[in-house]
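--- STAGE predict ---
source: upstream dedup step, 1 unique chain passed
mode: sequence only
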Amino acid sequence: PFSPLQSRRHQMYPFLTAEEIDRMRRFGNVQYWRAGELMFEVGVPGPGMFVLLNGRVRVTRRDGLGHVHLVTDADPGQFLAEVGQLSGKPALVDGHAIEDVEAILIAPDRLRALLVAEAELGERIMRSLILRRVGLIEKGSGPILVGQSNDGQLISLQGFLSRNGYPHTVIDACSDPEAIALLERISTSKADFPLVICPDGTVMRAPDENQLASQLGWLPEFDPAHIYDVAVVGAGPAGLATAVYAASEGLSVAVFDCRAPGGQAGASSRIENYLGFPTGISGQALAGRAFVQAQKFGAHIAIPTEIKSLHCDCTPIQIELMNGKRVSSHTVVIATGAAYRRPNIVGLEKFEGHGTYYWASPVEAKLCKGSEVVLVGGGNSAGQAVVYLASHAARVHLLIRGPGLELSMSKYLIDRIAALPNVTVHARTQIESLEGDGRTLAAVHCKTPDGPLKLDVRHLFLFTGANPNTGWLRGCNVNTDAKGFVLTGPAAHGGHADCSSSLETSVPGVFAIGDVRSASTKRVAAAVGEGAAVVSQIHGLLAERQELALKAGAVAAIDGNAP
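--- STAGE serialize ---
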């Protein structure tokens, strides 16, 4: 099928002028490769960006089944890289020298310096790097996921790779002839599913997300001797905004998230009230842009990496990872957001991952195409999901506890939902129990003012309230409110605090922003604003500490010279 990228090939693979190449020379070193030599390889950390001076290079992609496809043949004047090379991630394609090649090799750190120093040229390069990743995702190279299309773990892995912008292919173990032939050669049982077949031939049997990320080379190493200026925990809009603003201003930044960029907002199908996007933008697209932007400025991003605990009694502060390693930082920004609350519904545990979902991405939309679905929730995220699912499902039943949507949802979403002919809003309605055969959802039993209501559906979407992701703060002296959200500013200090530190918690040097913060505005724009504001407060704190250190040093010097 036709791809919009076909009309943008000149942007994906532009030719540089001689003058532009000369400007790039100071960022790299000229190197040579013989005809037939492998310059970069799938799964191996990429050395950076290649600017071809002489010779041609063939770029190919391959998947776990050994299929090899041509991506492009690059000529002198072109460059080879994609967004993964901003941080030296493993290559997603193979590059072979067709002829003897002479090229400028620009290492990842120097590539980032080039993008910042050469604004106009950097814009062309960055656009190309992003489009190349989009092209690889569209073509479906990389690991192959094999399983049953409605399997909860397969859906989870598929969503994990999609949210992280990683190329992959999914094939049905029951209907795809190639999958069936493959399974005949591999001894498998139901417990092995889903299978993940990596481009290097490695077969993973029912891996979890962290195992898959480790195999694909996502997880970075941390220098135990390095002390970051800012450690951001959470890569939602608030955390990514902090990373972009802090890194662009020269601070050393580390970002951690246990799953993918974007947080809850990353699962939104379309955000239409975010400033500067009059036609709307998906949460994943917005998060993806911010993620690349943070890498451009040199933020060290560790996804997926789960945090075990925060050690506030250390100087500098230490973040302990689940693997036991510790990362030190002068300041910490808590941006872990909130997770949708698991409602108290009889039978829910039997259908978790098998017909019940806490977000609505293209993966889930494909599963419920042409079916009736139930969605519970009255906030903006629920409204965005309703609008999105209505274009795929035969009918969407929206269940809310209150009398209407006016108190909890933006008017543009309320109007949009009211105009959709296949959406039914059930006010003052609550789910009491779920019914199904084995692990397949068959019906939802509800309580309404008019009596019991049974909805025969196989898909249930839950957007019900939110609990703060603050379990990792236990043992630290960060004060929270009665619901577990982090207190900041005067509220964190019993009503006494400097207004310039309105986002600082009860622990000096530890800040909280976004949905995890008590009394915060639960909007993407508000989270991004707090991400920018906290950087200013961090600058103030670091400057104050430096001034105190200089004064202490001066006093010590005077004391040392005293008779």
